[in-house]
Amino acid sequence: MKKVWKYIVGFFSFVGGILALVLLGSNKNKKVKELKGKIKDNEKKVKEVNSKIKSTEKQSEEIKKSLKSKKEALDDIEKKREEFLKSRENISADDANTFLKNYAKKSK
Questions:
Q1: CA angle (90, 95, 100) in 5-degree steps
Q2: How many CA atoms are closer than 13 Å to the CA of 30, on its beta-carbon side?
Q3: How far apart are CA 88 and CA 94, in angstroms?
Q4: What is the DSSP letter of 90?
Q5: How far apart are CA 94 and CA 19, in angstroms?
Q6: What does the alpha-carbon distance between residue 80 and residue 42 come to, in Å, rounded to a whole number?
Q7: Residue of 51 and 95 predicted with greater confidence
């Protein structure tokens, strides 16, 4: 009778252990699933932030290029202005008079 009793107690303890693992494991699985979901959400957010960073970097590069081209254009304008001022000093009254006569003829 003692042997049968030991087998019965062993069987119930085995079944109880399995049930305990299943019940405790299900709670852990829920937590693991929640954590995996949060990780996926965070990965999506990281990708969005990275794409925004790349787009702002592209925009800043474009702004730098446009500023550079505008500075070059400004330098050209300054050079032309200086040339104009230098050439204006060399113009005589006779040259100005002939220019104005020709301009008046063209405007009629």
A1: 125
A2: 5
A3: 13
A4: T
A5: 114
A6: 57
A7: 51
d(CA 86, CA 76): 15
Amino acid identity of residue 57, one-letter, is E
DSSP string for residues in 60-86: HHHHHHHHHHHHHHHHHHHHHHHHHHH
Q: Give the separation between CA 28 and CA 32, rounded to whole angstroms.
A: 6
DSSP letter for 108, please: -
Domain boundaries, the chain: 2-90
| pLDDT (mean) for 43-71 | 92
Distance CA 108, CA 106 (A): 6
pLDDT for the residue numbered 27: 67
Condensed to tens digits (0 to 9), the pLDDT of residues 78-91 reads 998 888 877 766 77
What's the CA angle centered on 29, arms 26 and 33, to 5 degrees?
145
> Cα separation of 96 and 87, whole Å?
12
Neighbours of 90 (CB within 10 A): 7
